[in-house]
Amino acid sequence: MGTRKVNTLLNCGAKVTVVSPEISERLHNLADTAPLTLKSRPYRSTDLEGVFLVIGATDDETLNQQISSDAERRNTLCNIADRPDKCNFILPSIVRRDDLVITVSTSGKSPALAKKLRKTLESQFGPEYGDFLKLMGAIRSKLLSQAHEPEVHKPLFEQLINSNLIAMIQEDKIKDIDAFLFNILGEGYRFEELMNLNTHKAG
């Protein structure tokens, strides 16, 4: 659980410090390239000094209470995994497909249900949705660079979204995608060129 939360925070641009007597090999490897500090020892109250947000991912109820109390004294945002009564904010379950972010929250009533729904969404929304969103962003940027009113583009995007374009991306049918884009948008809209355009802009 702790490793997954660390990954989520890093993906959001956070600088993360992990304090634990046992640290996974995955986190050690991650610390080589990510803004991640590892402290292989038990928690101390002083670990919260200068911290914006703390997450406790432990089965030790005494330790959970200490972390929560220390955070309260410092007016620090605190979330204790699966213990909503010891939190002053709730973390939603997150499904991320590049720029597509889907969140699920049960307001702390049932973390197990939130986890189940997250897994369902993960199976329903695969990596092709991230690629589809990149494609839509590139198409939108290219259309907006032309002398058109944004309202003119609305029917085009509705056709793209309501088509089987996502399925074609999932099945890597590049020729079919290019033919479909040509029928809807005309010349100059090829899948690989649009995806490369999106990548160059992001870089």
What does this structure look like?
This protein has 203 residues and is an alpha/beta fold. The chain has three domains: 2-92, 3-Layer(aba) Sandwich (Rossmann fold); 93-124, 2-Layer Sandwich (Double Stranded RNA Binding Domain); 128-202. The protein is 50% helix and 13% strand. The chain contains nine helices and six strands. It has helices spanning 2-11, 25-30, 61-73, 111-124, 128-144, 150-161, 165-170, 174-185, 191-202; strands at 16-19, 36-39, 53-56, 77-80, 93-97, 100-104. Strands 1-2 form a two-stranded parallel sheet. α5 (128-144) runs antiparallel to α6 and α5 (128-144) packs across α9 (191-202). The chain is elongated. The chain starts with a helix and ends with a helix.
Radius of gyration: 22 Å
Q: Please state the overall shape, judged from the principal axes of the Cα atoms.
A: elongated
Structural domain tally: 3
CATH architecture of the largest domain: 3-Layer(aba) Sandwich
CATH fold topology of the largest domain: Rossmann fold
CATH homologous superfamily label of the largest domain: NAD(P)-binding Rossmann-like Domain
What is the tally of beta strands?
A: 6
Through-space gap between termini = 31 Å
Furnish the topology, listing elements before pairings.
Layout lengths: L1 H10 L4 E4 L5 H6 L5 E4 L13 E4 L4 H13 L3 E4 L12 E5 L2 E5 L6 H14 L3 H17 L5 H12 L3 H6 L3 H12 L5 H12 L1
Parallel strand pairs: 1-2, 3-4
Antiparallel strand pairs: 5-6
